[in-house]
Predict the 3D structure of the following.
Amino acid sequence: MAAATLKDATAIVGIGQTPFAKQLPESEKTLACRAILAALDDAGIDPSEVDGFASYTMEETDEVEIAKAIGAGDVTFFSKVGYGGGGSCATLAHLASAVATGQASVGVAWRSRKRGSGKRPWTNTAVQLPTPGQWTRPYGLLRPADEIGMLARRHMHEYGTTRDHLFNVALACRNRANQNPAAQMYERPLTREMYMNARWISEPLCLFDNCLETDGALACVIVSAERARDCRQKPVYLHSVAQGLPAQHHGMVNYWNDDPLTGPAWTAARQLWKQADFGPEDVDVAQIYDAFTPLIPLSLEGYGFCARGEGGAFTEGGALEIGGRLPINTSGGGLSEAYVHGFNLINEGVKQLRGTSTAQVPDAATCLVTAGEGVPTSAVLLRS
Amino acid sequence: MTTTELLAPVTDDDGAPFWEYTARGELRVQACANTECGELRFPPRPCCPHCRSFDSEWRRMSGKGRIWSYVFPHPPLLPAYAEMAPYNAIVVELAEAPRIRLVGNLVTEAGAPWNSVDPARLKIGAKVQVVFAQQGEFTVPQWVLER
């Protein structure tokens, strides 16, 4: 008997999004509904047909609220993945599993967030977890930027990664945002001088190493490959999906194992490639989770685009730009389009394979999308 | 330095002994009490990930270590931290067990401000020694450069 597989069994047939801005007047719930209805309209599927939902934590609006607002039918599958931005692609994995096994037929994944006008999560001292927060926060590692800055400094020390490498990441994202009218940084070019003179956030990370603060929402619709052929849009197939929680992992403060610089990306990657018909060298374009620039070199290593320690050097020579070895974050990513916990990376991956990106990679047929590195993560391989 | 507004450790059942020992001026790390295993582990947890024993003990460390990495946080920060910024936060690997790393702050002497050491003196690999200081109701480890 052939082993069950999710390979190309399901497809993304609809995507939707709201505007992105530092501040939007509408509520998260309203923004979520707008993005979801836009995605269903894009797919040409009536909201009453939706019977599956997947979201990830830090999402304030639950399925009950969404389902009754958009007029969904009877819902037979709903899941919520943990670890914030690490769960973005896992929503697709869960829906793919549900649709492929008949638990649902029309699945919706979404993220709505008012991180721009809301409070910064780390200012809420009431929710600091005893583990591992008791070992880090009292000493002033308060923010994700501080925690990732620690890994970035170590990567610089061990492998010679430089601020110029991190600038290459920030610049590639900004250049793509400058081509994308929906991006928050559409009309804001970045120069090396601006980067090198920017204020520190947590040295060695400066302002431009950090993602944006955004209000906005996105959604996508997943159905079976069979049904996808009858939908309005060109299907984008979920070729391989994976989650990753490595042995002895500690979240963003991953300082307590043999090798803190090999994070969840490595685990997700092994599972992702094991199920795929192609490898890293066959990826035409990648959307790599970029809450902070150092996550790109770490992910390039983890997902096998270069050897251990070479993630910084990989960025040289315009490698991440259109026409380079691996164009990344072609909408501008979290650094320069919008930071919506990585969901804009998913929608941009779909646009690339439809051929409708504002920074289109010619003939793109395969795309890697990743969720947050540095926390229990997830990733998907899309193909057209 | 007013330390009262700095965050206190929010302890749990597994972590509480660490803070009881620091209050006595001792740096101890949880270890497996199975004599055939004996592996150190951090952060503390209910059972040993190597042999799955639920028996544990708290082993005293020399307090010597090396800086594994460091950052200098700048605002925006919580108010008590913003007052000291930029300060240093370091990860120290312990001499006895390099895989056991503790987050802390490098200071000129116990209780000195977190910005008391010239940033140019922070180097990965620099040898450090633990000292203890009061932070609110807790005694927390801090680190000074070995002379």
The longest strand of chain A covers residues 215-224. The mean pLDDT of chain A is 96. Chain A is about 30% helix and 15% strand. Residues 10-118+212-383 of chain A form a domain with the Peroxisomal Thiolase; Chain A, domain 1 fold (CATH 3.40.47.10).
